[in-house]
Amino acid sequence: MGHCLSKDLKAEGAIKALKMAVGKLDKCKGVIHHSDRGIQYCCTGYIDVLKKHGMKISMTEEDHVYENALAERVNGILKDEYYLDELNIDYKESRKIVAEIINLYNNLRIH
After folding, report:
1. Which of 7, 20, 81, 85 ranks highest by number of CB atoms within 10 Å?
2. Could you tell me if 13 and 6 are in contact, meaning their C-beta atoms sit under 8 angstroms apart?
3. Cβ(36)–Cβ(66) under 8 Å?
4. Secondary element (H or E) of residue 41
């Protein structure tokens, strides 16, 4: 629902993606937010946004990537189907392409 292509794994990018997702939801209260245990998802700023919107927090067990299959699938699609990791493009262009791919995946692709 939300995304942010960031140059690092700092919390700011994750918070930006979370706020984008919150903006797309009619209501957040009771929504279950699932993530891995990355520092960006466990930090106070990120947790505060979840709590502010009444979202329930769910996290994987430590180092268990199979519990986060949807996010890993999207990352795999970006690499395996769109070859995003092999393109020789700058950061600005990468952000544009990621937004287009996510829109295609979420809104146009038949699931």
Report:
1. 20
2. yes
3. no
4. helix 39-42
Q: Comparing C-alpha atoms, which of 28, 30, 24 is closest to residue 3?
A: 24
Q: Which amino acid, 99? A: A
**Can you tell me the distance from the alpha carbon of 77 to that of 98, in angstroms, rounded to the nearest whole number?**
11
Alpha carbons 23 and 39: distance in angstroms, whole number: 23
Of 22-31, 69-78, 96-105, which range is least confident? 69-78
Tokens coding 46: 């990120």
Q: pLDDT tens digit string along 49-94?
A: 999 999 999 888 766 666 666 667 777 887 888 887 788 888 898 8
| Helix, strand, or coil (residue 80) | helix
What residues contact 106, with CB distance under 8 A and at least 6 apart?
A: 1
Q: CA 93 to CA 87: how far, in whole Å?
A: 10
Q: Which residue has the higher pLDDT, 106 or 63?
A: 106
Token code pair at residue 71: 């996010």
Query: Is 0.85 topped by the overall pTM?
Result: no
